[in-house]
């Protein structure tokens, strides 16, 4: 009986000690988290993509407009950005990335755009197809297809998700084409076949543009074109279309993201039309982060 009481007493002491230790650890954790600002937690770094991208220029402007002198945006690739996002998200750690819609990450993770009260990132944008001057005369069939090209965010998302899950881009593109023959027929309606004419498409390595360019490559090849895809950064992409070293690109984000390039090369390219509306750029964070606006980064 005395042994039983002794064991119960020891158990109670152990539980009390563990409880106090847990409380002490929680208090320490709360103190640490409450004492650090978002900037301190992130070492004042925003995770960006390739340095020539329009969203990077907009982010540099946002840093200036919102008085975020301590902040920097790190450059890299789209793949590196999403890898950093996954690592932070899986550990429920804070992260801020340059983001855009459409992109598969919004289906994969619970994310939100930070509010932009100063309008640095603009409102809704459009993805345009642009072509070199003289394309209509030299390649009327390709010009017609590229001008007709338009699809939805869901269409693009289906291709992006397959690629993200490990499928080869050309296979994912063919799968979408096979599942959507009526949409492809709208782009190619009335177009005659060609015999191996060479055409070069320039694009940036955004998941969205990888999807659209691979789909268009297959559509043009089915008409008889010999298609080359050239992956470059945004500046060289616009330069290539303007100087004729590339025939077209499906990756022009307007009116804001690529505004600098559109102005620089005004009169040196043809806007073939809008392929998608309602797209967006901005700073993106996981929803578990307790910030809602770019203004919060100055605190």
From TrEMBL:
It holds the Pfam family OpuAC. Its main location: membrane. It comes from Chungangia koreensis. PANTHER family: GLYCINE BETAINE/PROLINE BETAINE TRANSPORT SYSTEM PERMEASE PROTEIN PROW (PTHR47737), GLYCINE BETAINE_PROLINE BETAINE TRANSPORT SYSTEM PERMEASE PROTEIN PROW (PTHR47737:SF1). PROSITE patterns: PROKAR_LIPOPROTEIN (PS51257). It is found in: Cell membrane. Residues 1-21 form the signal peptide. Gene3D superfamilies: Dipeptide-binding Protein, Domain 3, Glycine betaine-binding periplasmic protein, domain 2. InterPro entries: ABC_Gly_betaine_transp_sub-bd (IPR007210). Residues 37-178, 197-299 form the ABC-type glycine betaine transport system substrate-binding domain. Keywords: Cell membrane, Membrane, Signal, Transport. This is Glycine betaine ABC transporter substrate-binding protein. The keyword Cell membrane applies. Coiled coil: none annotated.
């Amino acid at each position: 009986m005395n042994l039983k009481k002794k064991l119960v007493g020891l158990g109670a002491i152990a539980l009390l000690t563990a409880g106090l230790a847990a409380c002490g650890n929680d208090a320490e954790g709360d103190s640490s988290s409450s004492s650090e600002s978002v900037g301190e937690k992130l070492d004042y770094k925003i995770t960006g993509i390739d340095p020539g991208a329009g969203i990077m220029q907009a982010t540099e402007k946002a840093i200036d407009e919102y008085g975020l002198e301590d902040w920097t945006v790190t450059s890299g690739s789209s793949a590196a950005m999403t890898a950093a996002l996954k690592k932070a998200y899986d550990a429920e750690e804070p992260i801020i990335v340059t983001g855009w819609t459409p992109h598969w990450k919004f289906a994969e993770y619970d994310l939100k755009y930070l509010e932009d009260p100063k309008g640095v990132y603009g409102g809704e944008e459009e993805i345009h197809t642009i072509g070199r001057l003289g394309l209509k005369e030299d390649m009327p069939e390709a010009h017609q297809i590229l001008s007709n090209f338009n699809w939805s965010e869901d269409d693009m998302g289906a291709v992006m998700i397959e690629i993200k899950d490990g499928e080869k881009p050309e296979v994912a593109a063919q799968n979408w084409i096979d599942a959507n023959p009526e949409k492809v027929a709208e782009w190619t309606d009335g177009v005659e076949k060609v015999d191996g004419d060479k055409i070069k498409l320039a694009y940036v390595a955004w998941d969205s543009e990888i999807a659209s360019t691979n789909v268009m490559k297959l559509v043009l090849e089915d008409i008889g074109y010999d298609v080359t895809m050239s992956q470059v950064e945004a500046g060289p992409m616009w330069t290539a279309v303007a100087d004729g070293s590339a025939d077209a690109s499906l990756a022009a984000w307007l009116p804001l993201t690529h505004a600098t390039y559109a102005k620089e090369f005004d009169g040196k390219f043809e806007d073939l039309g809008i392929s998608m509306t309602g797209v967006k750029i901005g700073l993106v964070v996981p929803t578990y982060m307790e910030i809602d606006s770019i203004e919060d980064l100055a605190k």
